[in-house]
Amino acid sequence: xxRVALVGAGIMGTNHAxxxxxxxxxxxxxxxxxxxxxxxxxAASVGATYLPEAxxxxxxxxxxxxxxxxxxxxxxxxxxxEAGLDLLVEKPLATTVAAADRLIRAAADNDRILMVGHIxxxxxxxxxxxxxxxxxxxxxxxxxxxxxxxVTEDVVVDLMIHDLELALAIAGAEVERVSAMGQCVxxxxxxxxxxxxxxxxxxxxTVTASRVAQTKIRQIQLTQRANFVAVDLLRQDVxxxxxxxxxxxxxxxARYRQAGVIEIPFLEHRGEPLGLExxxxxxxxxxxxxxxxxxxxxxxxxxxxxxxxxxxxxxPR
Length: 317
Hints:
By secondary structure, the protein is α/β, with parallel strands linked by helices. Helices cover 33% and strands 31% of the residues.
Protein backbone atom coordinates (compact mmCIF):
# COMPACT_ATOMS: atom_id res chain seq x y z
CA UNK A 1 0.00 0.00 0.00
CA UNK A 2 1.22 3.47 -0.89
CA ARG A 3 0.47 5.99 1.83
CA VAL A 4 -0.94 9.14 0.27
CA ALA A 5 -1.46 12.59 1.74
CA LEU A 6 -4.04 14.97 0.28
CA VAL A 7 -3.33 18.69 0.50
CA GLY A 8 -6.46 20.72 -0.14
CA ALA A 9 -10.01 19.83 0.93
CA GLY A 10 -11.92 21.91 -1.60
CA ILE A 11 -14.09 20.61 -4.43
CA MET A 12 -11.26 18.95 -6.37
CA GLY A 13 -9.59 17.71 -3.19
CA THR A 14 -12.87 16.11 -2.13
CA ASN A 15 -13.04 14.27 -5.44
CA HIS A 16 -9.47 13.03 -4.99
CA ALA A 17 -10.31 11.82 -1.49
CA UNK A 18 -13.37 9.95 -2.75
CA UNK A 19 -11.36 8.08 -5.38
CA UNK A 20 -8.26 7.47 -3.25
CA UNK A 21 -10.41 6.04 -0.46
CA UNK A 22 -11.54 3.20 -2.75
CA UNK A 23 -8.48 2.81 -4.99
CA UNK A 24 -6.60 -0.49 -4.61
CA UNK A 25 -3.02 0.07 -3.55
CA UNK A 26 -3.65 3.46 -1.97
CA UNK A 27 -4.05 4.32 1.71
CA UNK A 28 -5.21 7.90 2.25
CA UNK A 29 -3.52 8.68 5.56
CA UNK A 30 -3.60 12.47 5.87
CA UNK A 31 -5.81 15.38 4.78
CA UNK A 32 -4.35 18.89 5.00
CA UNK A 33 -6.32 22.12 4.81
CA UNK A 34 -6.02 25.48 6.61
CA UNK A 35 -9.81 25.46 7.12
CA UNK A 36 -10.00 23.15 10.13
CA UNK A 37 -13.73 22.43 9.93
CA UNK A 38 -13.55 21.55 6.26
CA UNK A 39 -10.35 19.55 6.61
CA UNK A 40 -11.52 17.56 9.63
CA UNK A 41 -14.84 16.76 7.98
CA UNK A 42 -13.17 15.37 4.85
CA ALA A 43 -10.55 13.46 6.85
CA ALA A 44 -13.24 11.87 9.03
CA SER A 45 -15.25 10.80 5.97
CA VAL A 46 -12.34 8.72 4.61
CA GLY A 47 -10.75 7.59 7.88
CA ALA A 48 -7.68 9.83 7.56
CA THR A 49 -5.86 12.10 10.01
CA TYR A 50 -6.35 15.84 9.77
CA LEU A 51 -3.35 18.17 9.71
CA PRO A 52 -3.53 21.96 9.44
CA GLU A 53 -0.22 22.37 7.56
CA ALA A 54 1.62 20.36 4.91
CA UNK A 55 4.95 20.65 6.73
CA UNK A 56 3.75 17.87 9.06
CA UNK A 57 3.10 15.43 6.18
CA UNK A 58 6.61 13.87 5.78
CA UNK A 59 6.71 10.65 7.74
CA UNK A 60 2.96 10.14 7.46
CA UNK A 61 2.90 9.49 3.68
CA UNK A 62 5.00 8.25 0.77
CA UNK A 63 3.31 10.44 -1.84
CA UNK A 64 1.03 13.46 -1.93
CA UNK A 65 -1.75 14.89 -4.06
CA UNK A 66 -1.61 18.68 -4.12
CA UNK A 67 -5.08 20.16 -4.70
CA UNK A 68 -4.62 23.51 -2.99
CA UNK A 69 -5.04 26.84 -4.78
CA UNK A 70 -2.78 27.16 -7.83
CA UNK A 71 -0.67 30.02 -6.51
CA UNK A 72 0.42 27.87 -3.52
CA UNK A 73 1.64 24.87 -5.52
CA UNK A 74 5.34 25.72 -5.54
CA UNK A 75 5.53 26.91 -1.93
CA UNK A 76 3.81 23.73 -0.69
CA UNK A 77 5.08 21.27 -3.28
CA UNK A 78 8.81 22.02 -3.22
CA UNK A 79 9.26 21.15 0.51
CA UNK A 80 7.28 17.94 0.03
CA UNK A 81 9.52 16.90 -2.89
CA GLU A 82 12.61 17.81 -0.86
CA ALA A 83 11.30 15.66 2.01
CA GLY A 84 11.21 12.63 -0.32
CA LEU A 85 7.54 12.49 -1.33
CA ASP A 86 6.37 11.86 -4.88
CA LEU A 87 3.86 14.46 -5.98
CA LEU A 88 0.74 14.76 -8.13
CA VAL A 89 -0.12 18.45 -8.62
CA GLU A 90 -3.55 19.50 -9.84
CA LYS A 91 -3.55 21.62 -12.99
CA PRO A 92 -2.20 24.13 -13.55
CA LEU A 93 1.22 23.11 -12.31
CA ALA A 94 1.76 26.72 -11.23
CA THR A 95 0.63 30.23 -12.03
CA THR A 96 4.04 31.34 -13.33
CA VAL A 97 6.78 29.64 -15.33
CA ALA A 98 9.28 30.44 -12.58
CA ALA A 99 7.15 28.62 -10.00
CA ALA A 100 6.77 25.65 -12.34
CA ASP A 101 10.56 25.54 -12.74
CA ARG A 102 10.98 25.43 -8.94
CA LEU A 103 8.84 22.30 -8.75
CA ILE A 104 10.63 20.64 -11.67
CA ARG A 105 14.06 21.34 -10.18
CA ALA A 106 13.03 20.03 -6.77
CA ALA A 107 11.73 16.80 -8.30
CA ALA A 108 14.91 16.29 -10.35
CA ASP A 109 17.28 17.14 -7.49
CA ASN A 110 15.55 14.70 -5.15
CA ASP A 111 14.77 11.95 -7.70
CA ARG A 112 11.03 12.24 -7.11
CA ILE A 113 8.00 11.66 -9.37
CA LEU A 114 6.31 14.92 -10.38
CA MET A 115 3.04 14.46 -12.25
CA VAL A 116 0.51 17.12 -13.27
CA GLY A 117 -3.22 16.44 -13.02
CA HIS A 118 -4.36 17.29 -16.53
CA ILE A 119 -7.33 15.00 -16.15
CA UNK A 120 -8.44 15.04 -19.80
CA UNK A 121 -5.31 13.08 -20.69
CA UNK A 122 -6.94 10.18 -18.83
CA UNK A 123 -10.32 10.48 -20.50
CA UNK A 124 -10.84 7.08 -22.19
CA UNK A 125 -11.60 8.84 -25.49
CA UNK A 126 -8.29 10.75 -25.33
CA UNK A 127 -6.39 7.59 -24.41
CA UNK A 128 -7.77 6.08 -27.63
CA UNK A 129 -6.15 8.86 -29.65
CA UNK A 130 -2.78 7.27 -28.92
CA UNK A 131 -3.84 4.69 -31.52
CA UNK A 132 -5.68 6.99 -33.91
CA UNK A 133 -3.35 9.93 -34.58
CA UNK A 134 -1.55 9.43 -37.88
CA UNK A 135 -0.54 11.97 -40.54
CA UNK A 136 -2.19 14.76 -38.57
CA UNK A 137 -2.98 18.03 -40.34
CA UNK A 138 -5.16 20.12 -37.99
CA UNK A 139 -6.65 19.95 -34.48
CA UNK A 140 -9.87 21.70 -33.46
CA UNK A 141 -10.60 21.79 -29.71
CA UNK A 142 -13.77 23.29 -28.22
CA UNK A 143 -14.58 23.66 -24.52
CA UNK A 144 -17.72 25.59 -23.59
CA UNK A 145 -19.99 25.90 -20.58
CA UNK A 146 -22.35 28.27 -18.79
CA UNK A 147 -21.08 31.09 -16.60
CA UNK A 148 -20.39 30.42 -12.92
CA UNK A 149 -19.69 33.32 -10.53
CA UNK A 150 -17.82 30.88 -8.28
CA VAL A 151 -14.83 30.78 -10.65
CA THR A 152 -12.43 33.71 -10.20
CA GLU A 153 -9.71 32.81 -12.71
CA ASP A 154 -9.90 33.78 -16.38
CA VAL A 155 -11.16 31.22 -18.91
CA VAL A 156 -7.65 30.50 -20.23
CA VAL A 157 -6.20 29.35 -16.90
CA ASP A 158 -9.46 27.80 -15.72
CA LEU A 159 -10.60 25.92 -18.85
CA MET A 160 -8.51 26.43 -21.97
CA ILE A 161 -5.31 25.14 -20.37
CA HIS A 162 -6.83 21.64 -20.59
CA ASP A 163 -7.03 21.92 -24.37
CA LEU A 164 -3.74 23.73 -24.82
CA GLU A 165 -2.05 20.83 -23.06
CA LEU A 166 -4.00 18.38 -25.23
CA ALA A 167 -2.95 20.24 -28.37
CA LEU A 168 0.70 20.05 -27.31
CA ALA A 169 0.40 16.33 -26.61
CA ILE A 170 -1.54 15.45 -29.78
CA ALA A 171 0.59 17.55 -32.13
CA GLY A 172 3.77 16.12 -30.64
CA ALA A 173 5.82 19.23 -31.40
CA GLU A 174 6.67 22.67 -30.07
CA VAL A 175 4.57 25.74 -30.82
CA GLU A 176 6.22 28.19 -33.23
CA ARG A 177 3.40 30.72 -33.70
CA VAL A 178 0.47 31.83 -31.53
CA SER A 179 -2.38 34.28 -32.12
CA ALA A 180 -5.45 34.80 -29.95
CA MET A 181 -8.44 37.01 -29.33
CA GLY A 182 -10.85 37.20 -26.43
CA GLN A 183 -13.74 38.98 -24.79
CA CYS A 184 -14.77 39.91 -21.25
CA VAL A 185 -18.52 39.26 -21.28
CA UNK A 186 -19.78 38.42 -17.79
CA UNK A 187 -16.77 39.27 -15.62
CA UNK A 188 -13.71 41.50 -15.40
CA UNK A 189 -11.50 38.75 -16.82
CA UNK A 190 -11.48 36.83 -20.10
CA UNK A 191 -14.69 34.79 -20.55
CA UNK A 192 -14.33 33.79 -24.21
CA UNK A 193 -11.06 33.10 -26.03
CA UNK A 194 -10.03 31.59 -29.35
CA UNK A 195 -6.39 30.75 -30.07
CA UNK A 196 -4.70 29.69 -33.29
CA UNK A 197 -1.50 27.67 -32.97
CA UNK A 198 1.08 26.50 -35.46
CA UNK A 199 3.56 23.78 -34.49
CA UNK A 200 7.09 23.18 -35.75
CA UNK A 201 5.95 20.03 -37.60
CA UNK A 202 3.39 22.00 -39.65
CA UNK A 203 0.31 20.92 -37.68
CA UNK A 204 -2.13 23.73 -36.86
CA UNK A 205 -4.72 23.95 -34.09
CA THR A 206 -7.74 26.07 -33.26
CA VAL A 207 -8.63 26.19 -29.55
CA THR A 208 -11.83 27.81 -28.27
CA ALA A 209 -12.86 28.13 -24.63
CA SER A 210 -16.00 29.86 -23.38
CA ARG A 211 -17.74 30.11 -20.03
CA VAL A 212 -20.66 32.15 -21.40
CA ALA A 213 -22.25 29.39 -23.50
CA GLN A 214 -25.74 27.98 -23.00
CA THR A 215 -24.63 24.36 -23.05
CA LYS A 216 -21.65 22.25 -22.06
CA ILE A 217 -19.42 21.12 -24.93
CA ARG A 218 -16.12 19.25 -24.79
CA GLN A 219 -14.97 18.20 -28.27
CA ILE A 220 -11.84 17.40 -30.27
CA GLN A 221 -11.78 17.08 -34.05
CA LEU A 222 -8.72 15.86 -35.94
CA THR A 223 -8.23 16.43 -39.66
CA GLN A 224 -5.80 13.82 -40.94
CA ARG A 225 -4.66 12.95 -44.44
CA ALA A 226 -6.61 9.69 -44.53
CA ASN A 227 -9.55 10.35 -42.20
CA PHE A 228 -11.39 12.69 -39.83
CA VAL A 229 -11.58 11.82 -36.12
CA ALA A 230 -14.36 13.26 -33.91
CA VAL A 231 -14.07 12.97 -30.11
CA ASP A 232 -16.76 13.78 -27.54
CA LEU A 233 -15.08 14.05 -24.16
CA LEU A 234 -18.37 14.20 -22.24
CA ARG A 235 -19.77 11.03 -23.80
CA GLN A 236 -16.31 9.45 -23.98
CA ASP A 237 -16.69 8.29 -27.57
CA VAL A 238 -14.57 8.39 -30.72
CA UNK A 239 -15.80 8.28 -34.32
CA UNK A 240 -13.51 7.92 -37.32
CA UNK A 241 -14.82 9.04 -40.73
CA UNK A 242 -13.28 7.64 -43.94
CA UNK A 243 -14.48 9.13 -47.24
CA UNK A 244 -14.30 6.57 -50.04
CA UNK A 245 -16.10 8.16 -52.99
CA UNK A 246 -17.65 11.44 -54.09
CA UNK A 247 -18.95 12.85 -57.38
CA UNK A 248 -20.91 15.68 -58.94
CA UNK A 249 -24.13 14.79 -60.77
CA UNK A 250 -25.51 17.08 -63.47
CA UNK A 251 -29.00 15.59 -63.87
CA UNK A 252 -31.48 17.76 -61.98
CA UNK A 253 -28.83 20.29 -61.12
CA ALA A 254 -25.46 20.24 -59.49
CA ARG A 255 -25.26 17.68 -56.73
CA TYR A 256 -22.69 16.15 -54.51
CA ARG A 257 -22.72 12.51 -53.50
CA GLN A 258 -20.42 11.04 -50.90
CA ALA A 259 -19.90 7.50 -49.73
CA GLY A 260 -17.70 6.42 -46.90
CA VAL A 261 -17.16 4.35 -43.81
CA ILE A 262 -17.78 5.41 -40.21
CA GLU A 263 -15.69 3.52 -37.70
CA ILE A 264 -16.46 3.47 -33.97
CA PRO A 265 -13.39 1.98 -32.30
CA PHE A 266 -13.59 -0.03 -29.11
CA LEU A 267 -12.15 1.99 -26.25
CA GLU A 268 -9.53 -0.08 -24.51
CA HIS A 269 -9.73 1.98 -21.32
CA ARG A 270 -12.96 2.60 -19.43
CA GLY A 271 -13.78 4.33 -16.18
CA GLU A 272 -13.71 7.67 -14.44
CA PRO A 273 -10.77 9.78 -15.69
CA LEU A 274 -9.80 10.78 -12.15
CA GLY A 275 -9.59 7.13 -11.12
CA LEU A 276 -7.43 6.34 -14.15
CA GLU A 277 -5.23 9.35 -13.39
CA UNK A 278 -4.68 8.43 -9.73
CA UNK A 279 -4.13 4.78 -10.62
CA UNK A 280 -1.47 5.82 -13.12
CA UNK A 281 0.20 8.03 -10.51
CA UNK A 282 0.41 5.13 -8.06
CA UNK A 283 1.91 2.89 -10.76
CA UNK A 284 4.56 5.52 -11.43
CA UNK A 285 5.33 5.76 -7.71
CA UNK A 286 5.67 2.00 -7.31
CA UNK A 287 7.52 1.34 -10.58
CA UNK A 288 9.55 4.61 -10.60
CA UNK A 289 8.34 5.24 -14.15
CA UNK A 290 7.79 8.49 -16.04
CA UNK A 291 4.21 9.77 -15.80
CA UNK A 292 1.97 10.45 -18.78
CA UNK A 293 1.96 14.15 -17.86
CA UNK A 294 5.33 14.95 -16.24
CA UNK A 295 6.24 18.29 -14.74
CA UNK A 296 7.93 19.47 -17.93
CA UNK A 297 4.68 18.99 -19.88
CA UNK A 298 2.76 20.89 -17.23
CA UNK A 299 5.26 23.74 -17.57
CA UNK A 300 4.74 23.84 -21.35
CA UNK A 301 1.00 24.15 -20.78
CA UNK A 302 1.46 26.98 -18.26
CA UNK A 303 3.81 28.89 -20.56
CA UNK A 304 1.46 28.54 -23.55
CA UNK A 305 -1.60 29.51 -21.49
CA UNK A 306 0.07 32.67 -20.22
CA UNK A 307 1.06 33.59 -23.79
CA UNK A 308 -2.48 33.06 -25.07
CA UNK A 309 -3.96 35.06 -22.19
CA UNK A 310 -1.67 38.02 -22.87
CA UNK A 311 -2.45 38.00 -26.60
CA UNK A 312 -6.20 37.57 -26.11
CA UNK A 313 -6.83 40.23 -23.48
CA UNK A 314 -8.63 43.11 -25.27
CA UNK A 315 -8.09 45.59 -22.45
CA PRO A 316 -5.40 48.26 -22.81
CA ARG A 317 -2.20 47.63 -20.86
